[in-house]
Amino acid sequence: MTENRPSTQKKKWLLVTAACFLILGFYFTTTNTYTLLKGYAIYKWNKPEATETMAQAQAKPSKPEKKAAVPDDHELYEQRPETGDLMGELYIPKIKATLPIYHGTDEDELEKGVGHYAGSVLPGEDDNSVLSGHRDTIFRELGEVGKGDLLITKTEAGTFTYKVRKVRIVDADDRTVIVPKPKATLTVTTCYPFSYIGSAPERYVLVADLLKTELNE
């Protein structure tokens, strides 16, 4: 009986260790820690691509600029995206970040990239196109972007370059962020302050005007 005691103790130790790992794994996947790390992985994965993407773009012959205004009877998009669809990318030169844009602003979309508010127009169209993202993942450096900086969206319709006209700090429940605009506008928003722990009380908002349109042929 004495010879079997160490083996029995070893089995008990292994069972306790396995149980601890299971509990930690369950806790990790059901808390914000998992969401934060997943979002940060998306941010780190996409950011290095920005330099390569722009280098490739600069290497190609430049196309003649087209007027930003699009005739009222011209439809930029043949069909509207469905919730959850990957609909393009947002390139922010100031922070060298290229980020995927998904249609919708539910947590499923915001976990994967930038969310496009479904109640707003698509990039390039007249009126207010609204994009949102988490401040602690893909938009962790958005505070470095301000007036005069460029925001470039690429979709199936073309490439649309916007210039930031104004930076706003508003309350979390401020609905003026999504109101219609008289001209083509891109509004990018995230929670604020950036260093705030928990549910932030305000929003950091970039309001940008359409500067250049390059339509896909």
From TrEMBL:
- The active-site annotation reads 134, 191
**Which SUPFAM superfamilies does this UniProt record tie to the protein?**
Sortase
One matching Pfam family = Sortase
* Coiled-coil segments on the chain, per record: none
Q: Which residues cross the membrane?
A: 12-29
Q: Which InterPro entries match?
A: Sortase (IPR005754), Sortase_D (IPR053525), Sortase_D_1 (IPR041999), Sortase_dom-sf (IPR023365)
Q: Keyword check for Protein biosynthesis, yes or no.
A: no
Tree of life domain:
Bacteria
One example of the protein's molecular function in GO is:
hydrolase activity
Ordered alphabetically, the record's keywords are:
Hydrolase, Membrane, Transmembrane, Transmembrane helix
Name under which the protein is recorded = Sortase
